[in-house]
Amino acid sequence: MALLKVKFNQKKRVKLAQGLWLMNWFSVFAGILVFSMGLFLKIELRKRSEVMDNSESHFVPNSLILMGILSCAFNGFAGKICYDSLDPAKFAKWKPLLKPYLALCFFFNILIFFTALICFLMRGSLETTLAQGLKNSMKFYRDTDTPGRCFMKKTIDMLQIEFKCCGNNGFKDWFEIQWISNRYLDFSSKEVKDRIKSNVDGRYLVDGVPFSCCNPSSPRPCIQYQVTNNSAHYSYDYQTEELNLWHRGCREALLHYYSSMMSSMGAVVLLVWLFEMSVMVGLRLLHTSLESIANPEDPECESEGWILENSLKDTLKSALESLKKIGKFNQVEADAEGAEGEEGGKTPAITTVS
């Protein structure tokens, strides 16, 4: 028994073809939207590529861009088929291509669905990329005179100001690295010498943070040096008082920014997938309803359209049997080639009569 069998007359076939033509062009615009989202995400990721450890994060925007291009191509082609289906003479040239095209549409919809899932599931990979990238970038904050790294200070300062964050996981991350360049240290000062000597790696570590960690909304002047030294500041206790520094780490801030963006994009792609599925089902009904016309010379006669010619169970069973036959055929061919090779390797014995 056919799956989702529907009876059609000429009027219904025309309405279906016209509706699908319109839906296909809506799908083209949806493809442009998906392409634009991928392009926007790629630009946003490239803006902060210096604080990311690798290029794996670009897999999502690249997938969106590819799906957008394919969606425009597939739906533009389907729109042409639906338009020509109103004319039997024009539709005849598309008949041999419809089955392969519908099979391609099926695999294309699977790809769209997986692209939507990737948008939701990339959070873990993105978090690792950001954590390692920010950690490495903070080490280069002081290298304002080093070619290739001189821009890193500005990049991190602008990042902390824009996203209202400080450090990788928090402001204390700055205590563990030397973020002040040796160029601006007075090595004749006893304090500087003592700090460098007290460190195993010979680094100048301070309990301070860059100016970009300061929260301008705080009524108190920013305390960015000797943050943990209560006696250095009047009426101050860093453990109990709400500091005038940004509390949130930049990894968390960026992760929230990109994750919410990709989740929204994933939701849009899921809606596009549902729309594409409905278009594919409609195109299949149109295809079968036109093929099942009993008398092609009488376009007004009734016909039947369906999604699957047999039930889902029977269709899966026949597909499995076909795969088994293909497997057996390949096995027979491989055995035959092996036998030919063995025969070819044997050399006939030559007897000599003296």
From TrEMBL:
Positions of the UniProt region annotated as Disordered: 334-354
Main subcellular location: membrane
Record key words, sorted: Cell adhesion, Disulfide bond, Glycoprotein, Membrane, Transmembrane, Transmembrane helix
Domain of life according to the entry: Eukaryota
Membrane topology term: Multi-pass membrane protein
Gene3D superfamilies for this protein: Tetraspanin (1.10.1450.10)
InterPro entries: Peripherin/rom-1 (IPR000830), Peripherin/rom-1_CS (IPR018498), Peripherin_LEL (IPR042026), Tetraspanin/Peripherin (IPR018499), Tetraspanin_EC2_sf (IPR008952)
GO cellular component term of the entry, any: plasma membrane
Entries under SUPFAM superfamilies matching the protein: Tetraspanin
Chain segments annotated as transmembrane: 20-41, 101-122, 255-275
Location in the cell: Membrane
Any one biological process term the GO annotation gives: visual perception
Family of the protein in this entry: Belongs to the PRPH2/ROM1 family.
UniProt protein name: Peripherin-2
